[in-house]
Known about the structure:
Elements: H1 3-22, H2 31-47, E1 71-73, E2 82-84, H3 87-98, E3 106-112, E4 115-122, E5 125-131, E6 137-139, H4 142-145, E7 161-169, H5 172-184, H6 193-201, H7 206-211, E8 215-224, H8 232-241, E9 250-252, H9 255-268, E10 276-283, H10 286-292, E11 302-306, E12 312-323, E13 329-340, E14 343-349, H11 353-359, E15 366-372, E16 376-382, E17 407-409, E18 416-418, H12 427-434, H13 447-455, H14 470-474, H15 483-494, H16 499-505, H17 513-523, H18 526-531, H19 534-538, H20 545-556, H21 558-570, E19 589-593, H22 601-610, E20 614-616, E21 625-628, H23 634-642, E22 646-647, H24 649-656
Helix pairs in contact: 1-2, 12-13, 16-17
Amino acid sequence: MEPKEEVRQLTQILNDANYRYYVLDDPTMEDYEYDRLLRRLEVLEAEHPELLTPDSPTQRVGGKALSQFEKVEHPVPLESLQDVFSLEELAEFTDRIRQTVPAPVFTVEPKVDGLSVALEYVDGRFVRGATRGDGRIGEDVTQNLRTVRSIPMKLENAPHRLIVRGEVFMPKRVFEALNVAREEAGEPLFANPRNAAAGSLRQLDPKIAAKRQLDILIFNLQLCEGRDFSTHAETLDFLRSLQFKVIPYQLCKGLTEINARIAAINESRGSFSYDIDGAVVKLNDLEGRRLLGSTAKFPRWAAAYKYPPEIKETVLRQIVVQVGRTGVLTPKAVVDPVRLAGTTVTNATLHNQDFITEKDIRVGDTVQIRKAGEIIPEILGVVPEKRPEGAVPYRLPALCPVCGAPVERDEEGAALRCTGAECPAQLSRNIAHFVSRDAMDIEGLGSAIVDQLIAAGHIQSPADLYYLTLEQLSTLWKNGDKAPKKLLASIEASKTNDLSRLIYALGIRQVGAKAGKLLARAFGTLDELITADEERLTGIPDVGAITARSIASWFRSPQSRHMIERLRQAGVNFTSTAEITDRRFEGKTFVLTGALTRFTREEATERIEAFGGKASGSVSKKTTFVVAGENAGSKLRKANELGVPVLTEDEFLEMLE
């Protein structure tokens, strides 16, 4: 088969599979087969770049990162909706419409809580997507919208020009998984799916947006050249025929039917894959819409009925403390089952000790509970008059409930954290950090292998990596696979790493890769560092009181000492090999900015540190030199403002030589 024809067929097959999976929710192709065909298409497009088209399934992963979003003027304004908060206000809205349109028919749709966008097509091809902005001017987010797999890149039998409006959202399951991953990484959690969707769609790097698995529901036809319609329902059916994922709607003739549909949506909202915050009521007749027109703020023919927040009372029976992969202790309230937003709730987050203390939450209390963002159950407060006798204030434990190590409060923030170096709850994350590139740099130990080793009981500490046998590893791969031997060789090779890598790998809070280098040079051996008190530690440049306290506390822990002894017995290097004989940069701080041609940033930093200097990421009055490469930006401007000497790359090279 000719490459051109094969590319055409593969594109059609894969796009059809995408449509069935992401729009119809009716997958017809196994993941393995889809990945195999996609890989074949990638090969063909690489060999024949002229055959690559914008609607190719290979373009869904995200293009190049942008420096900023361009402004877009909407040909048809993206109006906002009038909010109504009661059935009485809704009745007034429908009565006003009846004064202009006799016997009106309405559509009632769920109001998706996401980010409104306009999608533009020319001759069936997706050419541009923009955020709503202020309704008239939005931002061009085409690259990010290409990663939304339910948006068709090419339409069959489409008009010359078509603009549709939809709501981009993050599915609930994706939101929950994203927050779990962010919590494990020690990153701030998203408050709700809408914030997560908005943040994802406005990422300058489309590859990040692609990972967020955004979705869309189309709810309006903005512009359609060459086609006339008489009702809103006709436009939605037309868009569905073009393979758009369209908002579900129901036609209602009177207020009784409208109210019943609004109540039904509210009752079933827990079954939706997306978050909603109301129902949208629209006049179905398009000519009637034209007669009614719009105010300066919103159309007169539509209204958004906002559901009141559902708050119920229940009894808090128990507080369970969970330990996350970063060691943070998270209290969870176990409550009597209560129905909220369409689902039965049996537990709720209590955030941290400060939250519990502020609201004076006690076991046995009757509490008010709701779903934050319709997703996460949370306790709003207690009902004091229903408090049972003998209920006592609650305090989180002083020892980790998993490993028994002392618990410490973060210096900045309200989190309580387990200090155990070998805590089972943190094991997977601790090992991932230990083997990472800037730490012990052990190749071949991905998260899946680590989890299997933990599940099999082969490792209870990062130190146990050095006691793994070929027999234990071979059970994780097929017979004849060379991976176990390669992994053992990588583990063995890591024993000779410089002390600075080991210090960073230990995972001591406040101690990053740079601090690891400083400490290794200052103390020379791990044993010398272990004996250092806080006063001696703060004598090291750039080691403050908080970091010194964290280091001293970590080395006092029995779990830490056990792990260190296991590392020692395994033959891991405890000595620094980075002796500084030439201290020409001692006491000097460099800032690198712009693109360097003779070094990578890492190489330049290593050269500076090899001569006793320090590489910083920000310019201040304490900066000695700024090394400016090509396209240097704000750091160069700040250096000039502060009068900091600026070196070209050639001048920097002369100083090194």
